[in-house]
Amino acid sequence: MTFARFPDLASRALAGSVVYANDELFAERENLIKPGPAVFSAEDFGHKGKVYDGWETRRRREPGNDHAIVRLGVPGVVRGVVIDTAWFKGNHPPYASVEATSVEGAPSAAELERASWETIVEKSAIKGDTGNAFEVTDRRRWTHVRLSIHPDGGVARFRVHGEPVPDPRFLDGTIDLAALEHGGAVVGCSNSFYSSPVHLLLPGRARVMADGWENARRRDDGNDHVTIRLAARGQVRRVEIDTSCFVGNAPGWASLRGTDADHPDEDAEWFDLVPRTRLQPDTRHFLRSVSAPPVTHVRLDVFPDGGLARLRVHGELDAGAHRAAVLRWLDLLPAGHAVQVLREAGASGRSAEEFLRRRPLADGGVLPPAVLSAFLGERR
């Protein structure tokens, strides 16, 4: 299951939401996207029967099937899904399928029901009490997915692993270049014994230590570190290193370095963004960058070890990187959505369809300057 290395785009931790389910009599649809594994208690019964930590529909007595619609917390290219039926044994669905759509804004459940849906996982047999994994080969960008179970039953968790592809129209100005929702990603880590460094890039504040990155206690002369690929090449202005919730196990010091390289190796040139700085437990530290050159990656070193809640790397995208993000986004949009946004940006219907025929735009296709400026947020 190699696709599991990609983040769960549907997770509640990324602001995903189950916006609709046609039935949830036995167990609520919101359980599908909880970050942790499903739990079970043999003694836990309610007035509707056994209480399950998942989504469970009633026994269907008529033709058809049940389904739930999930708004991805971060739109992106889906690499694989896991339909986890943990604890559902005699009441799991025998089959399931997954569809996806790409739409503008925040449509209502009724509007989503009328949207154009594409199948990304064909109707397939699934097992009970199992993490049923399916690789997805479609490389288009989606905003919503629909889990269909045939005909009914219970699913504990629904994971949608994929590559975040944010809307570049919202990447202008100063943003958090490291944020997962903007396309940042952890590409290296010395130690993640207690919790994943990916938590550093999640939106919002950490509630408990488990919401951050915590390594094991070091018993040597080294230090722990994590390397992050930024959303795109950009100039770092200021940094936040947050030790909230880490009281007796925060690092004593930290530093942040940057490099400008597509794939940094041991020969890459790294330079200070934030020199080694003393940290306090349970504190948000706000620091200004001491370097002006643009960077593609940052490396956070903690000395000698310890836990962090969040890392924010605020700055602006390089103009060329922002333009490349727009073209890639247009290449990955399904045709209907691409035509819609091109028309809204000022392209005529005929020219919008012509641009689609010339995809991939990232490989040399040319958009009129006025249309490209609309996507980049440039004021004329």
TrEMBL record:
UniProt KW Hydrolase keyword: yes
EC identifiers of the protein: 3.5.3.4
A biological-process GO annotation: purine nucleobase metabolic process
Swiss-Prot/TrEMBL keywords: Hydrolase, Purine metabolism
InterPro entries reported for this sequence: Allantoicase, Allantoicase_dom, Galactose-bd-like_sf
Catalytic reaction equation(s): allantoate + H2O = (S)-ureidoglycolate + urea
Span of domain Allantoicase: 16-164, 183-316
NCBIfam families (alphabetical): allantoicase (TIGR02961)
Family: Belongs to the allantoicase family.
Protein name: Probable allantoicase
Organism of this sequence: Nonomuraea pusilla
